Amino acid sequence: MDVKQRQKQRDFYLKNQVLTASPNKLISLLISGGIKAIKLAETSLDQNDMVKANHELLRAQDIVDELKFSLDHSVESQITVDLDRLYNFITQQLVAANVSKDQEKLPPIVKLLEELLETWNEVSQKQNI
C-alpha cells in the first residue's frame, strides 16, 4: 500500500470518526488535535523546518479558536469564563511562539491541553456521554 492510499484511509477514518462523534467527543478530538499539532511544531523547530512549524502552530491556533467558538456564552458560568480566558492565553502563547520560533513556550501549552483533555474526558465519563 502506497503513501497516498494510507493517507486516504486515515482521512476516511477521521472523517467517519468526526461525523459519528458526540459533541463531547468532538471537543476531545479537537483538544487531541491541538496537542498533536503543537508536538509536530516542536519537532519541526528541532529540525529547523520553519515552514512546517508555522503551519502546525497555525493549525493549533485554529483548533483553539474552534474550542473557543464551542463555548456556550448563553449559560452564565464561571467555567465558561475560565475556559475563554484559558483559550485566549493559549492562543497568545502560540502566536508568541510562532513569531519568535521559541520552542520553550510550547511544552507548557501542551501540558495545559493535556490536563484539559484529561479533565474533559473524566467529566464526560461521569456524565456517561
Automatic annotation (TrEMBL):
SUPFAM superfamilies to which the protein is assigned, alphabetical: Flagellar export chaperone FliS
Keyword list, A-Z: Bacterial flagellum biogenesis, Cell projection, Chaperone, Cilium, Cytoplasm, Flagellum
One Pfam family cited in the UniProt record for this chain: FliS
Top-level division of the source organism's lineage: Bacteria
Keyword Cytoplasm (UniProt): yes
Classification via Gene3D superfamilies: Flagellar protein FliS
Subcellular localization(s) per the UniProt record: Cytoplasm, Cytosol
CDD domains, alphabetized: FliS
Principal location class: cytoplasm
Keyword Chaperone: yes
Family (UniProt): Belongs to the FliS family.
Record-given protein name: Flagellar secretion chaperone FliS
